[in-house]
Write a structure and sequence with these properties.
The chain is mostly helical. The chain has 6 helices and no strands. The chain has one domain. α3 runs antiparallel to α4. The longest helix has 25 residues. It is elongated and about 60 Å long. The two termini are 24 Å apart.
């Protein structure tokens, strides 16, 4: 009964659908730009478009449609969306830039023949404003089909 109830929650299903569409597009866009298929992009963070933004914008949009923009649920989902988007463009993007610098340092050390044994840091953990905007568009469009 509880599982059926979960899958019949169209607000959650819409948000999850937006997330999956963004993740699928991430693989396609990465493949087109880099001319190589990397299935790991399906599960990876960062990149174009932002699946986190798509998920939360779809959630907030569906809550607005169902409960109204004056509802407590809409206020909570919108506040949560704003925090995640701010984090994606701010803290996580800067962390990704730091990872790029550290990876260049590691490369220099490895070119000199000093193996380090450490895995490369994850550089694609943040989003540019364009990536976040693209995720937001997905999150706004998918709820139209769930109405």
């Amino acid at each position: 009964m509880a599982l059926q109830e979960l899958f019949s929650n169209d607000i959650l299903m819409c948000a999850l659908t937006s997330f999956m569409i963004a993740q699928f597009l991430k693989v396609i866009i990465h493949s087109a730009v880099n001319r190589s298929f990397d299935i790991r992009r399906t599960f990876g963070m960062g990149g174009m478009p932002s699946s986190h933004t798509a998920f939360l914008v779809a959630l907030s949009s569906m809550v607005a449609i169902r409960e109204g923009m004056g509802s407590v649920a809409f206020a909570i989902s919108t506040a949560m969306t704003m925090v995640v988007v701010y984090d994606a463009m701010g803290v996580r993007l800067q962390t990704g830039k730091q990872s790029q610098v550290i990876n260049r340092m590691l490369h220099r050390m490895l070119v000199e023949g000093k193996p380090l044994g450490e895995a490369e840091l994850q550089e694609l953990i943040g989003h540019t404003p364009t990536e976040v905007f693209s995720g937001a568009i997905i999150g706004l469009v998918v709820p139209i089909f769930f109405r």
